[in-house]
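Quick one, T. Sequence first:
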Amino acid sequence: MRFDSATRPTPENEASGDLINPDKCEKSLRISYFHEANWTESIGTGDRKMLVVWRGFGWLVPVVVIAALILSQLSVDAVYGDGFYTANTWPKQMAFIVAAISIALLGIFVNHKKRQILFDEETGEAVGKAPAHSLFFIPIEYWAIVVLALLFSPLP
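Structure tokens:
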């Protein structure tokens, strides 16, 4: 099934029944599609489109990395003069390290400290925790490892 504006949950298509029946879906798909997952329809043009999938605060991972790189460039160029950031690699490496630490702390905070406990309405017993915040189905705190791997990957 193609996910576009016609199949996203809206008051119009929910009332007409044009969506997937959530009772016939597995629980994980129902949670991902109807409650927590978000995506962008298309990034790019023509045949080259990219689907971005996140849950909760997962969208913050690329924002943190880009913000760390921008803040690093602005601060290093302000202290050492224009062009220093582009001429040296250590400011970029420090930005990736700061981004990885920030992402790890963010992931631990939102996925382990602030996740809600779900209770069964009939019995009142705890049945688990709310879905984890993730980007491309990877929890936020594991993206710190990916960012560090990007730091040590060879440049083309």
